[in-house]
Amino acid sequence: ELKVSFEAVSVGEGSTSLEVSVLDCDTVEQVKEKILGAFKSKFGFPYGQLREIDIVYEKAGHSLLLQEVDDTSEVLGAVTMLNTLRHYKVKYGASVKVIMKQAHAPLSTQVSLKDDKNFSIKYFHLIDPDIDCHQSGNPERKKLKLKEVYLTKLLSTKVAVHSYVEKLFKSIWGATNNRIPPAVKYFFDFLDDQGERKKISDPDVLHIWKTNSLPLRFWINILKNPQFLFDMEKTPLLEGCLSVIAQAFMDSFSLVEQPLDKHSPTNKLLYAKDIPQYKQEVKAYYKQVRDLPATSSSEFKAFLQEESKKHKNEFNEPAALRELYKYLQQYFNVIQEKLVQNGASSELKESLLQVKDLFTNLKSCSWD
């Protein structure tokens, strides 16, 4: 356990000191990860990114910067052992301080060694890879044993997070008090109307339209990239876990039955028993949305206006208009043709030209 203090951070009236549980065999980077995790867990926001901080060991009035590799690192042949707390003789209850890298001397900063493409060849943590390779009596048996351990851990992790994953999925394809977001209802009704106009009788086509438009275009992006919504870092480990959950989500909307066997990918097998139930829930959700009373254009406009009022201080109109102009510029001829085909009024066509000219003139302006 370490007593950790933080440099130049304000979290209200609370103390900025933490006690963090670590192992003496942890590398410096592993210690940083545990410290940052403990800080965010206690205060509700991150102190900084892993690459932005250093940790200093404070003892008897002296400070020692802890690094993954330095002049004291143990070298065995062509490989270097990563420094651990044991290497630095950091004892139980020792005090360390977290500092921001830019606030320290330039020579103290150290780019992550894992950026080196030859990291696994040049460095090791607890076991020298060459020694491990030569002393393993039965490599195939060892590989099988590691796979068995991996699958056991994978299943136990799935069980641990299963209730949270189910709650998330049901909040996406569920209806609270038989209420659906007006935007979803309005858009799905639009797709249903297009199906009727084009005389599409196959319900699978409408299912695919809706799936490609909302779950696979919007929700998948959020599930795989939570940092878009939350102030957090998506580590490679977390990215792998989220990919498994996202795959289960996509499979829940699929109309294709995929035969699975022992050679199938592990992430597919992990949710194999849950997917059939999820598929039924998705179909029930689509039916529920369709059966609800239609949202009129006036109701939908009122909803959008109300949402705009709620977020008027957060919305950047110039940025939104620039994005609309990019779209207008790219598809201007197509939009003009569609207006002619649909018999649009001359006023609407004239307005389109005025908007395009206005943006073009603004774009050509400069302070030269």
TrEMBL record:
GO BP, one annotated term: negative regulation of cell adhesion
Regions that span the bilayer: none
Highest rank taxon of the organism: Eukaryota
InterPro entries: Plexin, Plexin_cytoplasmic_RasGAP_dom, Rho_GTPase_activation_prot
A GO cellular component entry from the record: semaphorin receptor complex
Pfam family, one: Plexin_cytopl
Plexin cytoplasmic RasGAP domain ranges (all copies): 92-333
Endpoints of the signal sequence: none
Molecular function GO labels: semaphorin receptor activity
PANTHER family: PLEXIN (PTHR22625), PLEXIN-C1 (PTHR22625:SF4)
Protein name: Plexin cytoplasmic RasGAP domain-containing protein
Protein species of origin: Synaphobranchus kaupii
Lineage: Eukaryota, Metazoa, Chordata, Craniata, Vertebrata
